[in-house]
Design goal:
Keywords: ATP-binding, Ligase, Magnesium, Metal-binding, Nucleotide-binding, Purine biosynthesis, Transferase. This protein is of the alpha+beta class and 388 residues long. The chain contains twelve helices and 19 strands. A hairpin with a 2-residue loop joins strand 13 (256-265) and strand 14.
Length: 388
């Protein structure tokens, strides 16, 4: 692309979601630089160039950004030196969606206090704790069962349900082992008995705020295993969900796509958390919408209009996870899996497996959500991972 005066994006985090963002950016002639903490990360395999750095090291992050001078800095994970992004934004760099958004969503405390205390959105009751003793006190205040999570973690790492005061120490130890960035602070949340949970993909672009059809999902150990679109909701529930999404995304600002996580309960809709970037449960949009969540993110970032988002067919996704740690592995059964009508597989190409690590996703589109879920389940059942 030597003759093309291309815009340049720098992706901070290069997992499976970033890989699709890079592909969509390249479709619009954008130069792509992928960054992560390890080499051969999924997005690095498709980007024009890549770098391996510790993104929590502000000085290293600044040095790389000053060297590459990207037009857009696109965080793909939470664990980044966001204070440095705030400084860089003041110096004229464009952080997606805004440096403030990345800073507030970097840990659970910032975004939870904004949602509950500043915006007054309904959330689970919560407390924070820095030591085991403080945690015991917090659990007593919230009551059991409750959910305990490191303030900086994702995909359920370090998360556990604490069912009685005797479980507190086990939960504390799990949080200490699973948290990113070596922070010891944890959040304790009231356990919400929801009817269902959804991700409402919300887009801020030059065309205003728009929403994708709600995505329903099922999580196991705090990580998603299945998602589908559209999730069946009443008009009133959709309106309530969109109101919550509008409030939180307006407060974060900027252009891009957000994944607003909501619990649907008998007492209305609760805000859970928000990703200021494409969401794992939203991979289903690769087969359901005219523009996937990744295409939408890039289009919004570049300042292009998004007059409408079309849901073409109902669809579903199922994750394929590893259950052993290995630097040499193979995904078997893809051939059989693809015999299922309208199924697709995305193999992320991560260089190693870890216990519980997501390695691939199966997608299916059909005439109904029920059929797509059934077909995705069937297609995924043929895929196994062998470790050598
Ligand atoms: N307070 C709660 N009550 C009931 N269930 C909860 C609560 N908090 C979390 N969960 C369950 O655990 C899942 C993961 O929680 P959460 O989204 O906070 O973790 P995460 O590590 O940020 O995940 P991700 O990065 O995948 O979004 C939720 O989708 C929900 O199923
Ligand atoms: N729930 C957030 C999420 O799904 N994030 C996605 O997982 C990657 C990390 O995967 P890894 O932990 O297997 O390296 C991230 O880079 C992002 O693509
Ligand atoms: Mg979540």
């Amino acid at each position: 692309m030597s003759g093309l005066k291309a815009k340049k994006i720098m992706l901070l985090g290069s997992g499976e979601l970033g890989k699709e963002v890079v592909i969509e950016a390249q479709r619009l002639g954008v130069k792509t630089v992928a960054v992560d903490r390890y080499k051969n990360a999924p997005a690095m395999q498709v980007a024009h160039s890549s770098h391996v750095i510790n993104m929590l090291d502000g000085a290293a992050l600044r040095k790389l950004i000053e060297q590459e001078k990207p037009d857009y800095i696109i965080p793909e994970i939470e664990a980044i030196a966001t204070e440095t992004l705030i400084e860089l934004e003041k110096e004229g760099y464009n952080v997606i969606p805004t440096a403030k958004a990345t800073n507030l969503t970097m840990d659970r405390e910032g975004i939870r206090r904004l949602a509950s205390e500043t915006l007054g959105l309904p959330t689970a009751k919560y407390e924070f704790a820095d030591t085991l003793d403080e945690l015991k006190e917090a659990v007593q205040k919230i009551g059991t069962p409750c959910v305990i999570k490191p303030i900086m973690s994702s995909s359920g790492k370090g998360q556990s349900v604490c069912r009685s005061i005797n479980d507190v120490e086990t939960s504390w130890n799990e949080a200490m082992e699973g948290g990113r960035a070596k922070k010891t602070r944890v959040i304790v949340e009231e356990f919400i008995t929801f009817e269902s949970e959804i991700t409402l993909l919300t887009v801020r672009s030059v065309s205003g705020t728009t929403y994708c059809a709600p995505i329903g999902h099922i999580q196991q150990d705090g990580d998603y295993i299945e998602s589908w679109q559209p999730h069946n909701m009443t008009e009133a529930q959709i309106e309530e969900a969109e109101n919550v999404a509008k409030k939180i995304t307006d407060a974060l600002g900027g252009y891009g796509l957000f994944g607003v996580e909501l619990f649907i309960t008998q007492n209305g809709i609760y805000f859970s958390e928000v990703s200021p970037r494409p969401h794992d449960t939203g991979m289903v949009t690769l087969v359901t919408q005219d523009l996937s969540e990744f295409a939408i993110h890039i289009r919004a970032i570049l300042g292009y209009p998004i007059p409408a988002i079309r849901l073409l067919r109902p669809g579903a996704s199922r994750t394929i996870k590893a259950w052993e740690e290995s630097t040499s592995y193979h995904l078997d059964g893809i051939e059989k899996s693809l015999e299922t009508l309208d199924s697709q597989v995305r193999l992320f190409g991560k260089p190693e497996t870890k216990v519980g690590r997501r390695m691939a996703v199966v997608l299916n589109a059909a005439d109904s959500v029920e059929q797509a879920r059934e077909q995705a389940k069937q297609a995924a059942s043929h895929i196994t991972i062998s470790y050598k």
